[in-house]
Design brief:
58% helix, 9 helices, 199 residues, mainly alpha, two-stranded antiparallel ribbon
């Protein structure tokens, strides 16, 4: 295990190398620190227990789509629109049209919110409004998702007004509990599956 610390200019410094790192607690303080760390790590990752029914349902849906020779028409249309949007290819945070975001773009934003809500005692290093301004110009190959997240954290930093502006165009509205949103997405998938069967 390598212990590394970042200084204020994000320069990494090697503190030590452990031959056999352990998460065992040898004292009450050690147990508290390591226990909190592990709880935060598992929450941040968003680990969900294995759900055999969900796996079978996904396999059935995928098999049905292959048999019918259909994909998700909304996704295909979104991909076609994406390639036509010039603002995606030469994106700057201020130039992103929130009305033109695809379902995948919104899913990225929802994931960012979910991860942030599960952060526990961790602090987000990137993306933050300040670091996006400093680091985005340094990216050798700027991806649309990087620029989109810079726009999102910039709006969120403006407080309620920025958050309202951001989620005004969201297909699912303002952020809600991840489990509630997951149920809404499942209901939408079920409706799409029923429409595909009706063909």
């Amino acid at each position: 295990g390598f212990d590394v610390i970042l200084d204020s200019s994000l320069k990494p410094w090697l503190l030590e190398v452990n031959i056999s790192p352990s998460l065992m607690g040898s004292s009450p303080l050690d147990k508290k620190i390591k226990g909190t760390l592990m709880a935060d790590v598992f929450h941040l990752v968003g680990y969900r227990p294995y759900d055999e029914k969900a796996v079978r349902r996904d396999e059935k849906r995928s098999l049905l789509a292959r048999k019918l020779g259909v994909g998700d028409p909304a996704r295909k249309a979104a991909m076609a629109r994406r390639s036509a949007d010039a603002w995606r290819r030469n994106a700057k945070p201020e130039g992103i049209d929130l009305k033109g975001l695809s379902e995948d773009d919104w899913e990225l934003i929802y994931d960012l919110d979910d991860e942030f809500s599960r952060r526990g005692h961790f602090e987000r290093l990137y993306p933050t409004p300040e670091r996006c301004q400093t680091l985005l110009p340094l990216f050798a190959s700027l991806r649309f998702s990087d620029v989109l997240l810079a726009k999102v954290v910039g709006l969120q930093a403006k407080g309620q007004q920025g958050i309202a502006e951001l989620y005004k165009h969201s297909p699912l509205g303002k952020p809600i509990d991840p489990l509630v949103r997951q149920k809404a997405l499942k209901a939408k998938e079920k409706a799409l599956s029923a429409a595909a069967k009706a063909r």
